[in-house]
UniProtKB/TrEMBL annotation:
One of its GO terms (cellular component) is cytoplasm. It comes from the Bacteria. InterPro entries: 5-nucleotidase, HAD_sf. It comes from SAR86 cluster bacterium BACL1 MAG-120920-bin57. This is 5'-nucleotidase. Pfam families: 5-nucleotidase. GO terms for biological process: nucleotide metabolic process. One of its GO terms (molecular function) is magnesium ion binding.
Length: 297
């Protein structure tokens, strides 16, 4: 049996805590605490990552002996204020049993101890610290997409290429020297692309896919990149060398990604560029990966 795929999720990514978060920001921690305790039997509505988490947990239905994936709650709440979150987890019948409540501190410090393969949070600082410590992490942003009432069981995850699956080496050339220099570099380069922050998570997803029956595999992946021919060649050769299969590859040559992500029916899309994420969030749940040259201050 392989080790588990472990996803760490914050309370605000899993549930809609906007109202209580506004109380925290306007009135402070004590008002927030009182509000959560008074409403701890009021079930929270699903948040941006709720559908994603539900589908991830359902992968365990394909395994008979033990769970192959696990979701762990990593929260800035105290156990006291977090009781409403756990009551909501039970009410929504989510199989989440492990949790960390950090009482206002960042929970990122526990992601390595839990062996987290992916950390999702609405906190920019928590995600940044996790990324800097080598954990695939992204900040879930508020989505303008309408929540679909009917959703199939297939888990669809879409990734940008440079600065997400791959390093930002090529993006640096594009940013510093322009498109022509980028294209010239891609033609000349014989070496493979270096790994980016999400390579390890993609590899773990690929392991799951390879274990399951291909006819009813519950996971589908897509690469959605601004690259186009001939810069697609290094991407394909690098993935081949890594032994990683991606189900769909979209080389869009700079076109807006949002409509394509909607057509793919992505449950989540990871990109390093804030503008791409804001565009995509109109159609699908999206998460910003704070890595690479585009995210340097």
């Amino acid at each position: 049996m392989n080790s588990k795929l472990v996803v760490g999720i914050s309370s605000r990514a899993l549930f809609d805590l906007n109202q209580s978060h506004q109380i925290f920001e306007k009135e402070g921690i004590e008002a927030y605490r009182e509000y959560q305790i008074q409403n701890e039997d009021q079930v929270l509505d699903p948040g941006e990552a709720f559908n994603l988490v539900t589908k991830i947990l359902k992968i365990n239905n394909f395994y008979e002996k033990q769970d192959r994936v696990e979701v762990i709650l990593l929260s800035r709440n105290t156990a006291d204020t977090g009781l409403r979150v756990f009551n909501s987890i039970e009410a929504h019948k989510l199989k989440i049993s492990r949790a960390v409540f950090c009482g206002g501190e960042s929970p990122y410090k526990y992601v390595k101890a839990f062996g987290v393969d992916l950390f999702l949070s609405s906190s920019k600082d928590d995600v940044q610290m996790a990324i800097e410590n080598g954990v695939p992490s992204a900040r879930i942003i508020p989505s303008k997409a309408k929540k679909s009432q009917k959703s199939d069981e297939l888990l669809r995850i879409a990734f940008d290429g440079d600065s997400v699956i791959f390093s930002d080496e090529s993006e640096k050339i594009y940013a510093e020297e322009g498109l022509q220099a980028f294209m010239d570099n891609e033609r000349k380069k014989k070496s493979m692309l270096k790994a980016g922050p999400f390579k390890s998570f993609l590899v773990e997803l690929n392991k799951l896919q390879s274990e399951l029956n291909q006819d009813d595999c519950p996971i589908r992946t897509a690469l959605v990149t601004a690259r186009s021919a001939p810069s697609h060649k290094r991407v394909i050769k690098t993935l081949r060398k890594w032994g990683v299969r991606i189900d769909e590859s979209l080389f869009l040559g700079g076109m807006n990604k949002a409509e394509f992500l909607q057509s793919f029916k992505a449950d989540i899309f990871f990109d390093d560029q804030q503008q791409n994420i804001e565009d995509a969030s109109a159609k699908v749940t999206s998460a910003h990966v704070p890595f690479g040259i585009k995210n340097r201050k």
